[in-house]
Amino acid sequence: MSKTYNVNGMTCGGCANSVSNAIKAAASGAEVSVDLDSKQVTVSGVDDDGIVEAAVSDAGFEYGGVVYSS
User: Fold this and answer.
1) pTM, whole model, 2 decimals?
2) Which domains does the chain have, with CATH numbers?
3) Is 3 exposed, middle or buried (0-12, 13-18, 19+ CB in 10 A)?
């Protein structure tokens, strides 16, 4: 199962890497894909939205909630 989240404040590749690395550190085994243009992150292997929210916040970005779940 994967979920796509809005992440506000990402403006560059460095931002995308920071968010991706924070999620991977918080959830071992998570697969993360960042779409910088849409300011969205797709995560698979994590069932708890709170883990993603905390990781995004800890990385210094604003968690925008779930956009899509499959």
Assistant:
1) 0.94
2) 2-69 (3.30.70.100)
3) middle
